[in-house]
Amino acid sequence: MFDFRYHALSLVAVFLALGIGIVLGSSLGDSVISQANKDVRSSLQHDVVNARNDARTAKEAVSNRDNFIAASFSRLAGGKLRNKRVAVVSSGDLPQDLESDVRTSVKDAGGTIDSVSQFDAKPDLVAISNKLGGRFELLGTNPDELRPLGRRIGRALASGARPAVKLESAFPDDFSGDFRGADAVVYYRSNDDRNGEADRFEAALIEGLRQSGVPVVGIERSEEDPSQIPFYVHAGLSTVDDADQPAGRVALAFALDGASGNFGFKNTADAPLPPGPKR
Fold first, then answer.
1. Topology (CATH level 3) of domain 82-263
2. Chain centroid offset of residue 146 CA
3. How many Å apart are CA 103 and CA 98, to the nearest integer?
4. pTM of the entire structure?
5. Is the distance from CB of 230 to CB of 268 less than 8 angstroms?
6. At what angle do helices 162-170 and 125-132 cross, to 10 degrees?
7. Among 72, 137, 169, 206, which residue is least crowded by beta carbons within 10 Å?
8. Angle subtended at Cα 103 by Cα 227 and Cα 161, rounded to the nearest 5 degrees
């Protein structure tokens, strides 16, 4: 009898201990997990706060840099384009904000915009040649004559010859300005698709602009994708890959003044700005 009670009490004690252990373990486990969750949340919140602060600091640093460059424009490039006229030519639509940036750069450097000429990425060359008339009229209908057509138009846009004035009269939405002749040319190329005919005409157009003997600078925005810099370089142009940024506007003024090279911050750039004068 004594043994039975002893064993019974032992069993009760064991089950009681197990129950107490389970309760305590569960409570302790919940407490540990709860604390771990709190620690993780606290760590993540701390990381988020730090990331936001870092982003804010970086944004302020970029803003301060751009403000400094903009304030320094007159010291860096003021007068670089004094009394010079600049023609703007684009293949495809020229973004209004980029055109505004170009105008600001030219104006702040002391120059003026002579004209703005925009060709479609796939221009109607027959219509263009017919509007020009005379010796141009047959060029747009013959694929073998695309090069002479493009070269003649390019030279006319840069020099301000009569064909440029005819284009303004025939296509006022795409050609505007004085067309009195330019001392430098800004060239922009959109990312639109082109066919072989358009490519041949564009190559000839750039060739004609370069034959005018003035600096021709290919530009794009800092976020342009895909970049057109390789195309410009292949065409023999100096380039500015961040013409929408204060540093790019400074570089553009130097390039239009005759500095050769590829300027900006992309991996195709030689340097952000042309080198200073040697002393």
1. Rossmann fold (3.40.50)
2. 30
3. 9
4. 0.78
5. yes
6. 120
7. 169
8. 90
Contact 138, 145 (CB under 8 A): yes
Q: Report CA-CA distances (Å) from 71 to 68, 83, 162, 185.
A: 5, 22, 40, 25
pLDDT in tens, 200-211: 999 999 999 999
Instruction: Give the model's confidence band at 26: pLDDT under 50 very low, under 70 low, under 90 confident, else very high.
Output: low
For residues 273 and 263, give the distance between their C-alpha atoms in angstroms, rounded to a whole number: 6
Taking CA atoms, 217 is separated from 11, 23, 231, 236, in Å, by 94, 79, 12, 9
Q: Please give the average per-residue pLDDT across 247-261, as a whole number.
A: 96
Q: Measured between alpha carbons, how far is 78 from 210 in angstroms, rounded to an integer?
A: 25
Best CA proximity match to 88, nearest among 271, 217, 240: 217
Using one digit for the tens of pLDDT, what is the confidence trace for 83-110?
Answer: 999 999 999 999 999 999 999 999 999 9
Per DSSP bridges, beta strands 112-119 and 175-177 are antiparallel
User: In one letter, which amino acid is 120?
Assistant: D
If one counts every other C-beta atom within 10 angstroms of the C-beta of residue 110, the result is: 16
Cα→Cα distances 98→107, 221, 244, Å: 14, 7, 6
Tokens of 193: 């698709």
Domain spans of the chain? 1-77, 82-263
Residue with tokens 């239009």: 256
Asked if 93 and 190 count as a contact pair (C-beta separation under 8 A), the reply is yes
